[in-house]
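Record now logged for everyone:
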Amino acid sequence: MEKADQRSPDGLTGPFPRLVFLGTPDFAVPTLEELAKRGADVALVVTQPDRPKGRGKKPAPPPVKAAAQRLGLPVYQPERIRHPEAVERLLSSGAECLVLVAYGQLLPQALLEGCPLGALNVHPSLLPKYRGAAPIQRALMNGDEETGVSIMLMDEGMDTGPVLAVEKVPIGPEDTAGTLHEKLSVLGADLMCRTLVQWKAGRCRPVPQDDASASMAPPIRKEETRVDWSRPALEVANRIRALDPWPGAYTVHQGKRLKLFHARPSRLNLSGRPGEVLGDCEGGLLVAAGDGRAVCIGRLQLEGKKALDAHDFLRGHAVPAGDVLH
């Protein structure tokens, strides 16, 4: 592959370190693609094994594997990265550093210490805030007004390593987990590329995290996906946004699960019992929350059916005013 101009947006030029890339889901693809576009020397792409997917349960490649194959990069899919054979394969690649983006397995100390420039990770939060598996969702649930990405030098802890670079973005009122996922994956790709060049050149200073101000972002639990209409409207809307598009917040109407998307607190002066349907408006279905305000739901999905915009949904499914969602 012909090497591209390795010029970063801040004017720095210089070589990338030879690297091994580790990642699995869609979130990791922009970083791999940007590294290849800018001419980085990617010795190997490591990703999770193919897993059964869909109704036919046929093995499907993870998104990073598909991207690596499009780019003509070698792919390695060990079942366990801690296995001695896997460790040896990575260390024998001649890589100066490892680059991780949502790989999905913890690295052994032998790999963290085996490359001269260590292992760099893209984390979608402003560390030390939201360490863990669900930083995007937790930021939305908590009503944060900004988030961002951190480039971290990995250690053995859970997102506890020193930080090399940070970039912030505002969280808009219409943002969902899906829109933030897209924004942060692109932002993380650019920031990782710029940081790698500076790190190799000795221009980055690792900044230890302040453990006293750290917070955790544990995985979303099944019970968190059900809407509690007794909560304030803003809190209800934030939870729905945090689970949009996956796994989807749900409520129950006439004994069936109803997933909810595109939520926001209504500006209309309406109130009712928590969960009571108040009617529809230009933005969607209005449902009363527990603080005397309402939530506007812009998109709905009945179990076993496709998600539809509220107006299309309501033309085919009766959700009359006065019904109560549970």
Observations:
- The helical segments are 29-37, 63-71, 84-91, 109-114, 135-141, 177-200, 233-242, 310-316.
- The CA atoms of residues 21 and 32 lie 7 Å apart.
- The first helix runs from residue 29 to 37.
- The chain is about 25% helix and 25% strand.
